Each structure stands twice: as structure tokens, then as C-alpha cells.
Protein 1
Amino acid sequence: MLLSKSCVYGLRAALYLSAKGPKSFTPIRSMSDNLEISFHFLTKILQQLTAEGILESYKGPNGGVKLTQPGEKVTLLDIVRAIDGEAMFTECALGLPGCGVMKPCPMHDKWAETRDGIKEMLETTTLKELSSKGKKLNLRITADGGFEWA
Amino acid sequence: MLLSKSCVYGLRAALYLSAKGPKSFTPIRSMSDNLEISFHFLTKILQQLTAEGILESYKGPNGGVKLTQPGEKVTLLDIVRAIDGEAMFTECALGLPGCGVMKPCPMHDKWAETRDGIKEMLETTTLKELSSKGKKLNLRITADGGFEWA
DNA sequence: TCTATTTAATATAAAATTGTATTAATTCTG
DNA sequence: CAGAATTAATACAATTTTATATTAAATAGA
């Protein structure tokens, strides 16, 4: 599995928020209901995104979370980095510490290239791009449902 | 992390066996010592590879494991498939069941392309290619050591 | 046949990830 | 100020992955 489950949940939530637009705060409860993700678990993941400055949160009535920047400015890489960390884009395929051009493992060259491909895909894809596509084509963002709440 | 730790251990062991050549059985104990992997854990991983027909094993004195086919014939994909399974090459990036061209998620197209890139890299790289390179250039296959036992 | 060597099988434990529950802190509304 | 709504923090539980330990089975060789 390329991305952890936490990361996948974070991506789905980020797409959700991008689809909702930047107007107001979205309560985590309605998000967890619509996305069919455990409320408390999602809360912890969103707290990470808040700590990283990707989301802004507000307590109390009419509170919730929202993207600090418009969805056009946020890439999938931003979300993945915030949750799964940078390691995925630097680590050796064979798990050897300090693997790099200076001290490579036999897989290094090929892996570095593949890894860069993954990174580039994530880096060049914005939340907005995907949430717009999802809304327009009524694609799925949950096992059985699309963007109807957006 | 793209590959599980088990899978990485399996890859390193497979490269080890490819470097040793097909002559005789290699005891798991010497492999686990040289690769600095827990003997029992490595044993279980190699049992999977044996069950998948990638390795052949033999009990008793002068026993051990060896590749059933020459290293030129075994790709990294064979090893990854045997240990981490096919899911990685078919699963949706957002974890949605049944995601595909007929019922895609917003990430489907981009992810499918990236995923195919990973798969192709694994599929076009043989054990032999990497173990030869490792031996020739004395690259690392453990945190601090290379192919000196080969 | 006995013993040492080795893989196979099973059981157990430790660690990491995922998920749930409880309480605290903040903020709006009346 | 009281109470409800909401995120934050903490603690706990379940599951999966990783790792270790024990015993069984097979085989070679003396």
C-alpha cells in the first residue's frame, strides 16, 4: 500500500473541503458522516493537517475546519507530506540508511526515478482539479456516494 | 512506504540468492547473518517465496533455499507479488472498492498511470541485473556491507 | 541407528497502525 | 451566565505487522 489509511482519509477529507469551497467552516461530524469515516479518527488526522497549516479550525457553534488556501493552491503532495511524512520520497527501496547517489544500493537509480514519478504526479495535482472533476462527472468519494453534498 | 518490510527483506534475500548463483542450497541462517535480518522472520518470508514456487527448499545438512529459476528470469515484480500481493497494482488510491474505468474515483486516471509506472519498473528489472551490478560496483545490500560473501 | 543440521509449523510477544471513548477547552446563542 | 456545539487532548482498545521462541519433521553422515 503506497499511502497509509490515515493519509487516504486525509486526502478524501481534503477533497471534500475543496469541493465545499472556502466560505465557511465545515464541522468534522458532517464530514465523517458523509465520508463514512470514524469521527474521532478523522478528527485526529485533521488535527495534523491543522498543525501543518493546511487547515484552519474553529471551535464552537458554526465551527469546524476549512482549507487555509484555495484548493487550486493545495496539491496532493501537501497532504501526503503532512500525514505520511517526507520519508516516502527519500527512503531507499531496500530500506538501507543513507542510500543515495554517493552510497547507492543496487535499486537506487531505478527506484529514484520511479519515486520521482510518484512525487511529480502528487505535486502537479491540486485538490481543486480533482474536486471539480468529481463534482462535474459525479464521481465517487465514498464506497457508494459522490459529491452530492457539495 | 511503498513496500512492506517483509517484502523488502524478501527482495534483499532474493538478490542474495541471485548473487550466489544456482549451484547449491544456501542455508537461511547464513543469509540472515549476512543480511542482518532476524532468522525466524526471514524464514517465514522465504517460506512464502517457496510456496509461490520462486524458491526451492531442502531440509537437513547441506540444505537451504535456492532460486528455482536463474536470476535473469526472475523480476522484482515476481517477488513483490508473492509477498505483498497483487492488491498494490489494482487498488484505488482513495481505497474505494471496485474503482476502475467504469466507476472511477477522481484520482483514478492519474493514479492508474503512476501505478503502471511502478509496476513496469519492477517488471523490467531482474534479480540478476541488480545482483550483477551490486557485485561489480560493490554496492550495499545491508546497512554497512556489500556483496563480499557472494 | 544416532546425532547434527536444516526447513516447517506453531505459538507467543512486541510494536505500529487503526479505531473508540472520555474529558477538557473554546465559542456561539439565548 | 447557562447551555449547546464544536475542536483538542488524552486515554484506551483492537487489529495488523514485525519479531522471537519452541517444537516438529526431514535428511545427511558417521
Note: The two ends of chain A are 29 Å apart (CA to CA).
Protein 2
Amino acid sequence: MPKEVTLNDQICFQISRAHQLFNKFYQEPLEKFNLTYVQYITLLSLWENDGVTVNYLSQKLGLSNGTLTPLLKRLEKAGWITRNRDKTDERRVLIHLTQLGKDNKEPILESVQGCLNRLNYNDDEFADAMDTIIDLQHRLEKTNENDK
Amino acid sequence: MPKEVTLNDQICFQISRAHQLFNKFYQEPLEKFNLTYVQYITLLSLWENDGVTVNYLSQKLGLSNGTLTPLLKRLEKAGWITRNRDKTDERRVLIHLTQLGKDNKEPILESVQGCLNRLNYNDDEFADAMDTIIDLQHRLEKTNENDK
DNA sequence: AGTGATTATATTGTATACAATATTAAAGAA
DNA sequence: TTCTTTAATATTGTATACAATATAATCACT
């Protein structure tokens, strides 16, 4: 007799839930900066590498340019970044952090870290959790590759 | 000297990636049924419990009614479900599977299972991965609770 | 029965998210 | 140099996703 397929047994569903919970989780530490979770992740990438193209961010964040273009415009409007055509290659748009974007790195990271600490992961637990998730990604990527 | 905060070290980011990859992963098995991943998850819940309210689905799926109402209307339009006001309590909308929705349970599950098998999880690995994700959810939920 | 509070769903506004298409610029070929 | 191809970003259309608000029905209390 085949086992019944239930919602809660689906790993995709549990990953979705974790994703939703993270979105909610980040609301509190980011509220005072008027940032969403995805906008924070974008800034995180820019704090690592500034002055990059939309395409670079798209690869790094795993988001399409159809998602990024409006998102970056909102970040620009809020004063965190600038968007400028590359003078040497006018197809490209270069994204740079503004002084505001640079100055707020530490306060934002502190606010987020304060919340992350409340998750109470010790180093081993955290490493194990990351390994499990990365391993899942690899399995999914391998399978997705085969589709092409 | 404090460690640098990088994108790839963020567990939230890795969860997001896994979520995105799952969305892509489900495209292939669901394409022939013209279903999205979230629509599939909704049907999965209805195959467990049919004739439920929007509110019930909202709780079960962890989605707001602002998300579910248009999603259910699309499922209705495609012929998978019906939406009817409860005669005994006209505030409620009861969601029922159509014959099409019932008849396609097995074909859809088979199509999905065929892809899931390609993830190559054995029972122990799968159980461990699920435990890790559920544990993460609990940590996030506990923290989110404190915010209220 | 009347009314205030509660419940259930729908709507609105904003923000992801991506596929497909369009636009423009650069690079390469004839 | 002109033409084709390629590359980079933007736009459009559809689908999540949720907070805040609106609407309507029910419940609880007097």
C-alpha cells in the first residue's frame, strides 16, 4: 500500500515556510531603515562588491533583471545607491553605494545580528544546517541542469 | 577583529535560493497540467481535506487571504476547484475540488514524484534534512513570537 | 430585537519574481 | 563601412505575497 502524500511531508513546502518566516523575521531589524529583506540582501552584496553591473548582481543574488531593475530603482529613490550608465560601455548600468549606503552598513548589520543571535545556533549547529541546505541546493541544481 | 558579513554565509540567503530552485524544479513536472508550484501545494492540501474554507487553507498553507483569493480564482477558472458561499454561514467561502481536480491527483503526484526521485535522497538523509529545516522554523517562530 | 464586537472574505497598494519581448549598444564579419 | 550577431538592460504581462482597509455576516450581550 503506497504511503499517502501529505503537504507537511514535502520538503519544498517546509523550505517555503522557512523562507516566509525569514521574511517576517527580518522585518523587525530592518523596519527602522525602511528596508525589505531582499533590499537588505542586495545591500549586503554591494557592501562586498561596490560599483557592479545589474547583470553581476543578478548572478550573485540569483534574481532576474526583471526583478532587480525595479528593486534597484526603489533603492535609488530611497537614497541608498546610484544607477549610472557606464561611460565606456553604454549598455551597462553601474550600481554604486551612496555615502548613506556606506555609512549605514554597521548599524544595519548590528540590528540584524542582534536578531540572528536570538536564533541560538551554536557554531556546529549552524554549520550543519548550512551544509544541509547547500546540499539540497546542489541536488536541485543537478536535477534542473538535466532538464535543459 | 570581527568576521566580515558575507551574502553566502547568511542562512536566510541559502534558504531563499533553495526556495527559488524548488520553484524552478517543479516547473517541469507541473508544466503539462498548467499549474504553478503554489497552485500544486494548494491542490495537495485539498486532496488531504476537501470542502474547506479560505481561512482554513490560509492557515494550512501559511498564506494570507490576500494571496489566496486571487490564486483560488485562477484555480477555479482553470476548472480545478469550485468556490461557493456557505449557505449556513454566508461569510464563508467553501472550496471544493471538481471532478477534474480529483481525477488528476494521481497523474500529478506521479509526475512530481518522478522528479523528486531524481533528488536521490535516501530515507535517513531526507529525514535529517527535514529535521534541520523544521528546527530552523521553530527557531524563527520562537523569535517572531517575541516581537509581538 | 437592537447594537457593538467579532469573524470571514475581498480589495487595494506595494513589493517581489520571472518569462518573453523590446531596445539599445557593442563586437565581429564581409 | 555596413550588416549581422551578441550583450546588457528595460519593459510587459502574469503570478505570488502581505499589510491595511473595506464589506458583510454572525455572535454576544443587554
Note: The helical segments of chain A are 11-31, 37-48, 54-61, 65-77, 99-103, 105-117, 123-147.
Protein 3
Amino acid sequence: MSVAALPAESPRPRPRASRDAGRNQASILAAATQEFSRYGLGGARVDRIATRARTNKRMLYYYFGNKETLFLAVLEATYARIRAAEKELSLLDAAPVEGVRRLIEFTWNYYLAHPEFLTLLNSENLHRARHLKRSREVRAMNSPLIETLAEVLARGRRRGEFRSGVDALQLYISIAALSYFYLGNNHTLSAVFGRDLASAEARRERLAHMTEVILGYLRPARPASIDARRSARP
Amino acid sequence: MSVAALPAESPRPRPRASRDAGRNQASILAAATQEFSRYGLGGARVDRIATRARTNKRMLYYYFGNKETLFLAVLEATYARIRAAEKELSLLDAAPVEGVRRLIEFTWNYYLAHPEFLTLLNSENLHRARHLKRSREVRAMNSPLIETLAEVLARGRRRGEFRSGVDALQLYISIAALSYFYLGNNHTLSAVFGRDLASAEARRERLAHMTEVILGYLRPARPASIDARRSARP
Amino acid sequence: MSVAALPAESPRPRPRASRDAGRNQASILAAATQEFSRYGLGGARVDRIATRARTNKRMLYYYFGNKETLFLAVLEATYARIRAAEKELSLLDAAPVEGVRRLIEFTWNYYLAHPEFLTLLNSENLHRARHLKRSREVRAMNSPLIETLAEVLARGRRRGEFRSGVDALQLYISIAALSYFYLGNNHTLSAVFGRDLASAEARRERLAHMTEVILGYLRPARPASIDARRSARP
Amino acid sequence: MSVAALPAESPRPRPRASRDAGRNQASILAAATQEFSRYGLGGARVDRIATRARTNKRMLYYYFGNKETLFLAVLEATYARIRAAEKELSLLDAAPVEGVRRLIEFTWNYYLAHPEFLTLLNSENLHRARHLKRSREVRAMNSPLIETLAEVLARGRRRGEFRSGVDALQLYISIAALSYFYLGNNHTLSAVFGRDLASAEARRERLAHMTEVILGYLRPARPASIDARRSARP
DNA sequence: TATGAATGAGAATTCATTCAT
DNA sequence: TATGAATGAATTCTCATTCAT
């Protein structure tokens, strides 16, 4: 389905008129990513996408069939990018605590640098993942980080630095959650709390806080003292 | 179209056309809340709202001016509801640990029972809080919980149950984040991870995890050891 | 039909709720005059009229039936006003040349002070006098000036100051035309010629010019020669 | 809907939908001219324009953006036509008196043949030349006649046939005014005066009157000179 | 491949007018 | 008289999509 895969699969010789089909597709995709992430699926305009891609609407339909399929292609490409970035992360190179910290920072920085990821996901959730569910590709693109994180947690636990019983998926979700909510809801939070949560200072504080929360949570229980968790679960 | 067709809730005989302005306004608001939360601002249809409210489009403009203002009214009412619910919470009645646990559960349960809150916020963020920024009302409706939470944290710390140096707003945001992300992105997360995160079992696990994360983080450092925060921030 | 006549004809006792029916009608009429003259019949808004009249739409329908009838009432009142003003003019008190000059100045000043007269007439002409044709009242309100002007012309001719063969109606129309066109098309003329025709200076010049045109035309032919017009129109 | 339904003017076989952009634009413009001139800007209906142009509403927006811009396009085309017609006039070919007479007749006949010019101007004035002010085109289309008329006046004066001190622009406006008012207000004038001012007879009289007014005004004052009117009408 | 032109269905919004009290 | 509420029928404008070349 994904159009991103098309170029590689079409080795057929290009006809004379073609300037650069791949480039056109890519620029449509880039324009669509911007448009969808800024306006959502419902608010996006095919016209604007074509204009921004410096092509015409017809091309858009030629390559992508229709608006929804284009939206899916955008989602797939967006997921592909974050997965690719995650692959660059080497959490196992460092000590466990450091590995977790890296993951937190990576997540934070990625969201910060790729705000379209947040809004596209929001849009797709509004549509109950209707598009993603149709996509084999994305389902196959399971994050490689879950397993790596599980390994980090295991090591840390063996070294007595982490508590036991931590589910890697839950933790992964929590780490994502802490950044996602803050950055994705930045506008409303700022409006409601009357503070500028997007300032450099505020961001530094947020990153520090999130790190403390996760690492604080992962600390093993105090050997001799009363286990906080025991009292928490009577 | 006439409200006269409505069921028995209105004992007094009703004329052909309803003259109960308040009721009409309320039902438009309710219908709009549904529509906007399901389809977003761009995807919402004024026609559907009118139909669902058992009135006609014209009344919607009569009372609310236009679609955007109606959207703002929906946002304001939605905020008013969660703030009202928060007021019912008595975090200070119980021990600090219990207070925090209550807040976590309240947040989780509220989002679960009011999924429209999540999607409406997402929509508003897509629009960069354009509507909320115009609303005095909402800005005045600062959450009462921040201060209460600060008090809970202070007490807990005095009792040696919580660590020091915790910012109440950051913690409040984090607590919200953990629920928000999971519930709001339920569809995509389920699609991507190939698990049903909406099952009762999965939800129970999630609530437990979140509670552990927050309370685990709040545990004070081991009395004799170096403060965790210092080691966290070299 | 004219509502302006209503108060006088309804001596019946006013019911308790009445504040001042006449005043209400008058203020609706005044508001409608403004609205119709500014936006034309098609562009006028019943809502705005009601608001401007500080009453509600229902009253407007109560008194005037509908928008078109209201428009007619406005026309009638407008005509009544100019006819009343014309009656104040005493062209026969002065010498003929002075009388004509007075008429020119009166026309000019009236149009200047009552721009609504021009635009309302334009609107009514757009509608091919559909409303006026229905109005007995207006047809009965023939300008008293035509006959007076005829008398002025006759006197002037007898005194050798005016040429003969001048049709009073044609002259009346021409005098109106010279002011009407300039003032009524002020905006487009200014735009097209790139001059401000509405300045005090420009207006003074225009009035002088118009007076010269009319009086220049009325000059008799040279005493010694045969009057060309006499031979032209036996 | 399809232009294919049109008569035989198009010899070559036509596909179902017209691809002749220019023709479509022109027919929209023609239809709009009719509609706007008959109903004014406010009263004009986009739907009717599309129907009359044998196209669909969408094309109208495709080519002209919106109703107001279309209105401006109509104005511009209308001005362009009268300016073009004015260029055909050769006032300097004849004797001065004859030149002025030609201008009067041209104006009269043009307004008679193009009543839309009058109503469109009235509409634009109702809107305070809002559209024309935005139009470079029209401002650049200053009438070529003003200067020609000035030249005619100068010549006539040199020949002792015209008075001195006549401003060409003022005279041009006056000539236009005399026709414009009579023809443009034909309906109301006829209604008010109870005469049919549109009859051939009435029109002949009007033209004669206007000519007399202007030429009568232009006569030089000097008693001892050649009778301007005799030489003017051989 | 590429592109301007075309379109039907539908979207938000407006309007004059009437109802019920 | 007076008024807020209600309404159906338009009205302008938009949109995704397709046609013809």
C-alpha cells in the first residue's frame, strides 16, 4: 500500500515526459504531511497540498488514489521515520540508568523536532486508527525499542539499580506519555495555566522532571525499610 | 423536528414548537459536544448537530452565532464539567499516599468516562488553542487541584513519606499524561502493538502501573543514602 | 397605504401596553430609510432595521406587513419630505433669473443634505418603479414646482430675460439631472477621474457651472436677430 | 448544463463538456452583466448567473473567485466597452458645434443601447465605488473624451462660436448627466409625472432639449458677433 | 506524465417571515 | 402591543474528484 515503497518496485523505464516521478511523489508526501499535521484529516485541503507540492491535484490522485490513501501514506512514512530514528539509538551501550535516560531524552527530542508526529497520531486516533488498521506495513513496524528496553531493565535489575516487576511496554508507553502530553497539549496547557510552557526554561524543567519520575520510579525498594509499594497495595 | 415528539419527560402539555430556550440550548450543546468530539472541528457537520439536537440548523446560529463559537462553548462546558468534578475530590481527607492515589484514579476514571474530553482537547490543540485563548471563562477556571496537590505533597514530605522538591504542577501534568496518552491513543497503540489495550484486564494493569510509577517516584530517598535527585542531576 | 398617515387616522384609544405607537412607527421608518438608502432593497436587512429602530422584527411586520411594503412607505415618506420642502420655495417672489437660480440651489442643497433621496430613487428605478406604481399617494404628489417654474419662465420671457419655447418639465428634469448625476455618482466619478469631487472647492465649482449652464441656456437670442427657436418650433 | 446543447455556431464536433475556457468565461461575464444590471449586487443570484451562462456555479468561482470579484469584472468590462466606443468618436472631424452635438447624441444613444451601464454604475455608487477603487484597470481607463472635448471647446472659442471659460470635465459631466438622469430614472419619473417618458416622441423631445441646453449655454455672450446658433444649424 | 477545466454533492450561513405567549 | 424563539427555503461558497487533451 505504501507509496513510499513504490519507486523501488517500479524499475520500468520512465517515459519521456517524466521529469522525476520519485521527486514528485516525495514532494507531494512532504506537502501532505505538513497539511495533515496542521489541519487534521478533515481540515486538510487537497488543493493546498497540490499547491505546496508545486504540482497539480491530478498528480496527487495519480499517485495516491485519494485523500484517505494519501493520509495513510503520510502516516506510514511518519512511522517509518521514527522507527528508523529509534534504530539509531543504542541503549545497550551504556549503563542501564544511562540507557533509560537516553530513551527519555530521545523521545522528548524527537517529539520536539517532529511535532507532526504528535498531531498526525491525534488525527489518526480521532479516526479510531481506521487507516493504520488497514496498513500491514505499520503493524510490521513494531518498535524495536520494547525489547531493547526489556533488556535494559533486566540488566539494571541484575545490577541492583532497578526495581523488579517492571513491564517494558508499560514503561515505554509511560515515557512516551510524559513527553507527548506536555508537548502535544502545549497550547491548551499554556492557555489554561497562564504560563508559557514552551519556553526553553520550562522545557528544561520538564525534561528534568520526567527523568526524575522515571528513574525515581525505577529505583529499587529500600532494602531495610518498609516497602513503599507494599503500603501502597494493602 | 418538533420537540413535542420527545418522550414523557415533559409532563405539561407542549405546544407544537418548544419555547423552552434553555433546554434547546442545552441539547444543541450536548449534540455539538458529541459531534465535535467524534469528528473534530473540521469534520463536524452543523447539520448533524442540529438533527441530533432535534432542532434545526437555524437555532444553532441563533444561539451560538457560528460553528466556531459553538465549538468554544463546547470546550467551555467541557472544562466546566471536569473542574466541577475535581471540586468533589477531597484529597486532603486521607493520608498523603492515599490522596495521590485518589487523584490518579480520578483522572483515569474521568478520562475513561468522558472520552470527549480527550478528543476535544486534541482538536483544540490542533488549532493551537485558538478558541480557548479567546475565552476568559476557561482561563479563570484554573484547576483547584494544583494547590491541593501541593498541600498533599507538603504533608507527605513532612511525614517522611514523600521525597522533597516535587513541583505540584509538573506532577499534576504527569499524572494526567499517563492516563491521557494511553486512553487517547488507545486505537493507534492497539493497532501498532497488536494488543487490545482497551480490555478490562489491560486497563487494570495500566492503572496499577501508573500508580506504581507515581508513588514509586514519590518515595523518599533512603535516609542514609545520597539524595536520588542529586545523583540524577550530576 | 402610507403609514405616515396612520396616526392621524387612528383616534381609537391606545391599549395599556402602548408606549407610543406613533413614535415606534416613526423610528422604524427612519431606520428603514437609512438601511434601504445605504444597502438598497435587496441588500437591506430586516434585522438591522429592527435593531436600529430599537424595537424587534415583529413590530416591523406588525406595522408594515413586509419588507416591500416598508420600502414603499419609506419611498412615500421620502417623496413627501421633498415635496414639502419644495413648497417652502417661493420662486415667484424674486426676479425670474433669481428664481431659476434659487431652484438650482435648492435642488443642489437638498440632494446634498438628503443623499438618501438619490439612492432610494436609484433603488426604485432598479425595480422599475414597481413600488411607486402601486402608490396613489406619490402619484398625487406631483411636484408643485413644475407649474411655478412655467410661470417663472413665462415672466422671464415677457421681460426679455429668457428665451422662448422652454418646456418647464424638461428644464426641471435638466436642473435635477445636473445635481443628481454629480452627487449620486460622486464615488465612481471620483474613482474614475482620480479627483475628489466631494471637496468643498469642487462643489462650489460644480454649483457655479450648473448655474451657468442653465442660465446661459435661458439667455434669449440676440435681440436684433430672428429667434432661431421660434422658427424651429412654430 | 453542457455547452454541447448550444446551437450551430460551433461546427466542429464538441465533447460533452466544453473545454473552451475563454468562451465560458465570456458567457459567465455576459450573464453576470445582465443579472447584476437587473438586480443590483445584493439582489443578483449566483445561481441564476450560472444557469444563464449555461455552466455551473462552480465554474463561476473557478474563474472569478467570488460574487464581488465577478461584479468588479463586470464593471471593468462595462467600462472597457464604453471607452472603446468613445474611441470611435471623432469629434474633431467636424465643426465645433457639430462636435458637441455628436457627443451629446453619442452619450444619449449609448445609454439608450446599454442600459446596463446606468444600473451598474448606480449599484457601484451604492457601494461607494468600493470595487472600482480596487481596480487599477478602470482608473487607467480615463475617458479620452475629456481632452478631445477641451480641444473642441478651444477651437469653437477661437472661431467665436463658443463662450470662454468652459471647463471640459464639468461640461462632459453635464452632458452625461442630462441623459443619465432621464434614462436612468425613467421609471420613477414616468410614474411620478404620469407621462410615458420612454416613448419615441418623448425621447426625440428630450434629445432636442438637451442639445439646446448645451449649445445654448455654449453660445458666446457678445451681442455683436455672429449668431452662434445660426452658424451651428445651417 | 502532466494539466487546466469541469462538476455534483454538500457545507456553512443568511433571510424574511411566523409562532406562541 | 410587545417579544424571544422558531423555521424552511435559499444563498454563497467549498470540496474531493474526474474529464479531455
Note: Residues 109 and 179 of chain A are 9 Å apart (CA to CA).
Protein 4
Amino acid sequence: MLDIKFIRENKDIVQAGAKKKHVDINIEQLIALDDERLKQLKEVEELRGEVNRVSNDIARDQDETLKIQLIEEMRAVKNEIKTKEEKLKIIIEEWQQLMLRVPNVPDISVPDGKSDEENLEVKGWGDKPVFDFEPKDHIEIMNKLKMVDFERGTKVHGFRGYFLTNDGVRLSFAVWNYTMDFFSSKGFSPIIPPILDRKENFLGTGFLPQGEEDLYKTQDNDYLAGTAEVPLMGMHMGEILEKNILPLKYLGFSPCYRREAGSHGKDVKGLIRVHEFYKLEQVILCEASHETSVKFLEELNRNTEEFIESLGISYHTVINCGGDLGLGQVKKYDIELWIPKENKYREISSTSYYHDFQTRRLGIRYKDENGKMQYAHSLNATAIATPRILVSLVENFQQADGSVLIPEVLQKYMGGKNSIK
RNA sequence: GGAGGGUUCGCAUAGAGGUCUAGUGCGCACGCUUGGAAAGCGUGUAUGGAGAAAUCCAUCAGGAGUCCGAAUCUCCUACCCUCCGCCA
């Protein structure tokens, strides 16, 4: 959510930002509606003031006849208020719906473009593996090494179902433990959050009202979150934080649930796109400063790059174009890992910042040095997601004999083994 | 699942239909006092909105209602506490 004052004062910028994100919204129309809202609000407030004043008179006045007369008068005013309030309520509801749809303004450095195909590569790292044999895809490799069981996975869960088994499980735990150690050393506090969450958390983070179809909903009207970002941001909902505890850096670990409603027919096989997976997520709440947000965006992205580098997998980093940004995102980097068999890069991580878009919806504030209330800024980034990362690990480090080499940094978490056979 | 008690300004509390325009204590800020400090005394100290300002409006968990008037009465929802039941 943007500040209506900001929208009013910068309507051209906001409108241009929406266009860059390919979001269809008419800011002029919103402002006209806001004019009407303010006009009606003023009228209602004036009448309420009158009732308040006269009600006090009624309480003080001793003259019974006058009392009765005033009460009669106020009855009439009250009816007038009721009519006006109903009108105002309709306007406010429409206004709120519109406000929730106004996208945050993308940064000037965000490239134009409609979809992820127009994302801009800003960095490449590492050598792509060269094989002197025909490389296999992760499905074949993992099946053969009994790391996964897709057939029974679909039997039990349905489409996109999987069992991880044996070294598939051990490798997952190794990744999780290594990730914990790696990010803890960078000052992140580990958190296991509730992932079955109430609706407000999703509205606050911007996953709702749009995107309902991609969420699993329970019979209690709660939702399963697709990322720990949702509960970690909700954690401080409605709070006034002490300035000196900022920045808050959290490393959330959680299962993630996604209906993948919009991606039928995409990645229908294997572990790339599944309904249920695990993710370690970096989340930062910091002071309300653009420079600080930008600094942490670079830091978060660099953390994950370093992590991938330590595994030794070739990657590139892209800036997402306007059309590939979420409603609240100002700027986003994706890190994509090399998948040999597919001969292309696939997304493993996503880093973005929001200014106060989320914290305004969630009511996460602090008092600055001048005693002024500020909405904190928020950022989040993937640390690592399993089982997706296993795809890159087994495909990049596969050997001619069908075995898979384990990156050095993971070996101690695999009982010292250097390969999976 | 059942019964009862709660949710008020950063914290703790008062408040039971009309001087509640939410009091008090703690904390915090400023001032007086002092060689300096503490104590003491005084003043101030919730959030959001409208307005150039004076000021006005809203908010006592959230929502709906009764009333000229609601923190206070009624109903619904959420959460917390105690007890009973069930349970890894």
C-alpha cells in the first residue's frame, strides 16, 4: 500500500510506475474518488461534532423541557449522519479496493519488459560443466541412486508428488544444516514460523487480494503460506519497534505450499516445480531509508550468490523487468543456476525490496530520532530451496558412472562422504 | 469439545451510561534546584485523519447494535488466562 498523500503528490510517477509493471490502474480516477472521500468525511465529522457538543449540553442542562427539545433535535441530526455515513462507507470501500491495487513504484534501474524473458543479466559466475559422456537429467540420476520416488509420490499425493528417499533425504538435511551455519554467521537469527497463517498476513505481504488461486485455503479460512516471508513479516504486525533493534535479520525455515495454479503444463516432471517444498528465507526489517534498503538488497543477493559459489555451481544473476515484479516490489534480482541437461539457467533465488509497501499494510513502525513515527522498510530473499537445489547439485556434479560428487562444503554434513553412489 | 475470567496511552493499573475532554504510578523528555549529580518540585508525554492554524473527528482487541450520549449495556469474532475432557 502506498500513502495516499504520496500518490496525490506524485500521481504521474505512480501512474508511470504502474505502466512499467504492466498493471492496469487509473490514478486520476483514484484521486477523484479520494476528493469525494475527503468531502464526505468532512461533512460527517462536522455533524458528529455537533452531536457531541449538544449531548454534553443535555447532560449539564437542568431544564427538562429544553432537554427534551434538544434530544428531539439530535434525533434528526443522527438520522442525517446515518445517511451520510452509509454513503461514506461505500466510497471508502471502493477507495480501499483501489488502494490495494496500486502497485509500488519500480526503481529507475528496473528494465522495461513484459515477462521474465526480458529480465536483464547483470552477472555470470563459474564454469559450466563439460561432460565427456551424455549427461542425464536429475530425474534419471536420482531415480537410479534411489534418492527419489516419483511414481509412489504421485500415487500418494497426486500430480507433482514425490518422495525423497535415502541420500535424497541426507542431501536435503546437509543443505539445510549448511545453510543454517552459513547464514547464522552472517547475523541472521533462525526462526521456524507457523506456515498455516491467518488472512491478514497475506494481505499485509501483498499475496492477497490478488493471487488467492495460488494459495491453499483451510476450512477455518486460514491459508498455507508459499514462503516463510508471510509469517516472518506478520510476526511484527501492529508493533511499534524500538529503533535500536533495527535492522532485524531473520532466517526462516519452513515448508512452502503453492498451488501453481497458473503453471499447468510447465515443468510437469521432476523436482523443479512442486506443490510442497522447503525453503530457508532471509527477511530484513530496517529503517525507512531508500539508501539502507538498497544496501540490504545488494547484501541479501550477495549472500545467496556467495552461498551458491561455495557449492561451486555456475549461475547468473538477472534484474527482473517491470512486468516480472510483484505489486509491492521496487526491484528484484533473481539468481539462476545452470541446468546442464536443459542447457539453460533456472531460478533458485529471488531477492527484493519493498520500501514501506508491506509494513504500511502490516502496521510495522518505529520512532525515529526526532520522535516521528516511521514505517520500517522490508526486504526478503531466498537463502535456498529444497528440493529444487538438488536438481542443480546432481546434474552439475554427475559422473560417467552415474554417481554424484558432493561439494566439499557439504561433505561434513554427509558424514564425510564425497560422493553419492 | 465444555465452564469461567480477561483484552484500556511504552509498561502497570483506575474506570460500572453524561465534567472520561480516559485518571494515576512507572518509564521517558524538558525546566527549576545544584559546584556536579541524585532526590525533590514543575511541565510535557498514545495513534490515525482533516486543516495554514486555532481546532475538529475517530480509536479503550476487532465488528455489529441499543441510546440524544457507550471504555461502561447487548450480540458476534479473534486472542490470552484458569479449570475439566481428549491427545503426540
Note: The mean pLDDT of chain A is 92.
